[in-house]
Backbone:
């Protein structure tokens, strides 16, 4: 009897332990270490199903079809017939000049073609406001929205923002549409994510994964800050939402990294915090208003930091100032390194762009810059950013003249087209080649000294060496882009 009782107790014990284990797998468990006082709480196991979540949010996710017209060129002479290194007296110069002269004529003139495109979006209000990507509806003449039940609606554009690739639409005549909301809490790396969209025209497709990374800069936006997710995203998912397990939108799916155009588990979404800011502005008047500091900038490299006496590479270096812009008005100069805005540390040029863009125009901000080995604070009233078309930089053609080699492998001569020294040649396996100088680059300044002759350049190098400095700061121009870089000497 006793043996049977113990056996029964053991069976009860096993069953109890099993039930406890199953319970822990759904509610989480505590992991503690005997060797450390730290205690970590870990949520174990995936949800049994995403079905309830999908059922709740799917009616608010829509497919978007557009048709429109777009200007195209059959041939771009700028791409195929530019030979900046061809001397003026070269026998083939006249041959290639004829293509230059024909630009904008004949087969190279703009032509208009009709196009169709498809993407995804999601409804954020009962009266039919729809969020999607700008590239989904760009140049569209007609926009058709199809919901999960197959109902079709026409839509109009409320406003667009090319810088963040976001657009806000309105379903014509909508009054009682299902909608979803944006998440308020920050998403974390490792959080579950569910994407719903219209990949390859297959509307209502659901995929799941996790948030792989935050703050990605993929050069698809001047403000960066993308979420990276591994949920399967493909062509047609653009503009669709990614949800957390509460059914709140954490991002707008925008781009994929893929060698073949298909899903490889790396996709990027605009975070909900950015989307909310842009959508709120678009609701007001159809445009996004951003603060404007009036500086061109670049990242600070380790060489640059060393050349100006910074303890590490940080901040954003000013490489250009807008005429009459807020920064120039108060005395900020090219070569300054912006370290803080309103007390917020600036990591790099992208961080400065994001920070200034979130501040309203006409707001006074304190900008701390690094100059001549010390911090200087300026009070700047931000202006309003006016979007301008991007200018395409052109390589500068070298000017034939007697060259002068330098100790860093650059052959220089005075720039006959303006200030500075033209780089006529770069000797292989030298520090100049390692720093990727090219023929046609123009050196404007070295350690703040305006350069008029190659000898001045060598004098600055000699002075730096004598003072124990191992790096000088170069202000250089390539095409119409001005950059600073540290040059070890």
Residues:
């Amino acid at each position: 009897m006793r043996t049977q009782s113990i056996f029964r107790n053991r069976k009860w014990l096993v069953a109890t332990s099993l039930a406890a284990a199953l319970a822990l797998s759904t509610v989480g468990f505590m992991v503690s270490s005997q060797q450390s006082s730290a205690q970590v709480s870990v949520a174990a196991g995936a949800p049994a199903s995403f079905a309830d979540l999908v059922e709740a949010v799917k009616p608010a996710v829509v497919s978007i079809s557009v048709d429109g017209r777009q200007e195209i060129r059959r041939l771009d002479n700028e791409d195929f017939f530019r030979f900046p290194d061809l001397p003026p007296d070269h026998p083939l110069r006249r041959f290639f000049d004829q293509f230059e002269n024909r630009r904008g004529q004949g087969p190279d003139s703009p032509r208009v073609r009709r196009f169709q495109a498809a993407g995804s979006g999601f409804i954020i209000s009962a009266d039919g406001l729809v969020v999607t990507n700008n590239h989904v509806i760009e140049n569209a003449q007609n926009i058709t929205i199809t919901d999960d039940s197959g109902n079709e609606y026409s839509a109009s554009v409320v406003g667009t923002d090319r810088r963040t690739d976001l657009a806000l639409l309105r379903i014509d005549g909508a009054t009682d549409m299902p909608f979803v909301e944006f998440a308020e809490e920050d998403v974390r790396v490792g959080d579950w994510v569910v994407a719903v969209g219209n990949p390859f025209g297959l509307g209502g497709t659901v995929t799941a994964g996790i948030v792989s990374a935050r703050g990605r800069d993929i050069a698809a936006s001047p403000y960066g800050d993308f979420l990276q997710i591994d949920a399967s995203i493909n062509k047609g998912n653009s503009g669709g939402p990614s949800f957390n397990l509460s059914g709140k939108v954490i991002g707008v799916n925008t781009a994929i990294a893929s060698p073949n155009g298909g899903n490889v588990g790396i996709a990027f979404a605009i975070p909900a915090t950015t989307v909310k800011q842009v959508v709120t502005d678009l609701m007001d008047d159809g445009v996004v208003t951003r603060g404007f500091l009036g500086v061109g900038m670049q990242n600070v490299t380790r060489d640059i930091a060393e050349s100006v006496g910074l303890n590490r590479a940080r901040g954003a270096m000013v490489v250009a100032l807008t005429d009459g812009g807020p920064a120039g008005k108060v005395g900020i100069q090219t070569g300054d390194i912006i370290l803080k805005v309103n007390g917020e540390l600036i990591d790099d040029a992208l961080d400065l762009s994001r920070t200034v863009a979130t501040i309203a125009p006409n707001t006074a901000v304190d900008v701390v810059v690094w100059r001549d080995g010390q911090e200087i604070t300026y009070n700047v009233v931000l202006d309003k950013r006016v979007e301008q078309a991007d200018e395409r930089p052109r390589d500068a053609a070298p000017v034939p003249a007697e060259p002068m080699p330098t100790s860093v492998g650059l052959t220089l001569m005075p720039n006959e087209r303006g200030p500075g020294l033209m780089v006529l040649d770069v000797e292989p396996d030298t520090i100049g080649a390692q720093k990727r100088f090219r023929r046609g680059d123009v050196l404007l300044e070295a350690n703040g000294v305006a350069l008029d002759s190659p000898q001045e350049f060598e004098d600055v190098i000699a002075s730096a060496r004598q003072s124990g400095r191992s790096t000088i700061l170069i202000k250089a121009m390539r095409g119409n882009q001005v950059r600073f870089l540290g040059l070890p000497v």
